[in-house]
Amino acid sequence: MKKWLLLLSLFFGLQSFAQNEILGLWYNDIKSSKIEIYKENGTYHGRIVWLEDPANSDGSTPRVDEFNEDPKLEKRPLMNLVILKDLKWNAEDKEWQEGTIYDPNNGKTYECYCLMQEDGTLYFKGYVLGITWLGRSTVWTRN
């Protein structure tokens, strides 16, 4: 009986580790920003915590979300902006799914999923209309 409990504990412990390995700091694909992925209320989110160029072209004001399609949001700072929302771990598929990812370079939000690749990078696929081939992918590296 103790062996079964130990095996079950080990199994669930590994599952917990797998789903939480996404947590931490990640560079975007071109290393122009760092995103902190954290867990809140059972889902995973990511916010910008570092920018290679934190100031606008005038050099004195913080970079803002200038490409946002909503004029009310164009002036919000990029620093601490949550760009990844509501990812859920799917143990069967071994990936995080059902989330959204926002691209501040074009002001668009995409449905997304992501998975940990064998080399330790994080592969994201952003797509629209529920069709995964209508979108694009990016790879983040751990900081």
Explain the overall architecture.
Helix content is 13%, strand content 47%. The model is unreliable at 4-17 (pLDDT under 50). The protein has one domain: Lipocalin (Beta Barrel), CATH 2.40.128. It has 143 residues and is mostly beta strands. The radius of gyration is 17 Å and the shape is globular. The termini are far apart.
Give the helix/strand layout.
Blueprint: H1 2-20, E1 24-27, E2 33-40, E3 43-51, E4 82-90, E5 95-103, E6 108-116, E7 122-128, E8 131-142
Antiparallel strand pairs: 1-2, 1-8, 2-3, 3-4, 4-5, 5-6, 6-7, 7-8
Low-confidence sequence ranges? 4-17
The CATH architecture would be Beta Barrel
β-strand percent reads: over 45%
Our count of helices gives: 1
Spatial strand arrangement across the major sheet: 1-2-3-4-5-6-7-8
Biggest sheet overview: 8 strands, antiparallel, barrel
The quaternary state of the protein chains shown equals single chain
Radius of gyration: 17 Å
Pattern of helices and strands? HEEEEEEEE
CATH-defined fold name? Lipocalin
Main CATH class: Mainly Beta
DSSP strand tally: 8
Structural class: mainly beta
Overall domain count: 1
The geometry reads as globular
